[in-house]
Amino acid sequence: MQFEHLGASPRIHPEAVVAPTAVISGDVTIGPDCHVLHGAVITAEGGAITLGENVIVMENALIRATAANPVHIGDHVLVGPMASVSGAIIGDEVFLATGTRIFNGAHIGARTEVRINAVVHLRTTLPEESTVPIGWVAVGDPVQILPPDRHEEIWAAQRELDFPGYVFGLDRDTPDLMVQLTERYGRGLARHAHDRQLE
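The line above is the sequence of Gamma carbonic anhydrase family protein; the predicted structure tokens follow.
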């Protein structure tokens, strides 16, 4: 299914294949020989999304851009089942395995592997030919790649990256943070009320 969102419609190369149950919404460009499988969602929430050539987006993957963080995915990239890419730049020949999570402002260098259920945090830069092991966490710039049992070190780096401030423009110490966050985010998402499904 394709949707016009905020006045922008998807542009899909005639040599790309998009499953009928995939959702493509807004300012999305899909290049030649790309394959978007069943249940995948590619949604441009105010920022553009560009998929290069020969990109495979597998079942139930999510790719989301924001006004502050567009998405660019290079050539010959595989986005695994249930993976999530939000507002990130992905280089050529990258492998994002099943269940990986890539957060806003991340930059992933060419020929990098982010393995099953690994996380690349907000504003993190992975150099070319990096590997994030299964279930591990990449955080910061310069990057630290840590196992999940080193939570205190991950949190120390993550706190400095300021997720609520960077993504939502809110101070983490605001007493009613979740009230403000959900109301602000909800107003942005309400713009989908005017989406138009395309033939």
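Note on the example: The domain at 2-198 is CATH 2.160.10.10 (UDP N-Acetylglucosamine Acyltransferase; domain 1). The longest strand covers residues 41-45.
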